[in-house]
Write a structure and sequence with these properties.
With about 120 residues, the chain is of the alpha+beta class. The chain is about 45% helix and about 30% strand. The chain has five helices and four strands; from the N terminus they run βαββαααβα.
């Protein structure tokens, strides 16, 4: 069975900004990530508090992740687009990489499908 890599990025947002971050992220960043062929598995607010937000992206390898992120975050579209507005909401973030099988990836898609809605 094919193995994939997922990156789980956890953001700590400034208090009281998660809904505004989510709105901006879904309106600006998600379509941009799709245009750059970045595979977003799911994203949304964490239920354990009101300042945490997560983004899970899938890659073929760690090298694929590195080249994809270098291209995306180095692009004029990102740097001259929503970058500053999005970064203004973020206190800190961390990322971890995990190797998963396709079934796990599909389960994450299913269980995370409702996580985009914060209301």
């Amino acid at each position: 069975m094919a193995r994939r890599w997922i990156e789980i990025r956890s953001y700590n947002l400034k208090p009281g900004t998660r809904q505004a971050f989510h709105d901006l992220f879904t309106r600006e960043a998600l379509p941009m990530l799709a245009r750059w062929k970045v595979e977003v598995v799911c994203a949304g607010g964490s239920p354990h508090d009101d300042v945490s937000y997560f983004l899970i992206r899938a890659y073929d390898s760690v090298a694929h992740r590195d080249s994809s992120q270098d291209a995306f975050y180095g692009s004029d579209e990102w740097r001259k687009g929503p970058r500053e507005a999005i970064l203004a909401f973020i206190e800190s973030y961390t990322s971890v990489m995990l190797e998963v099988d396709e079934a796990t990836l599909q389960d994450l898609r299913r269980t995370g499908s409702g996580s985009r809605d914060l209301s």
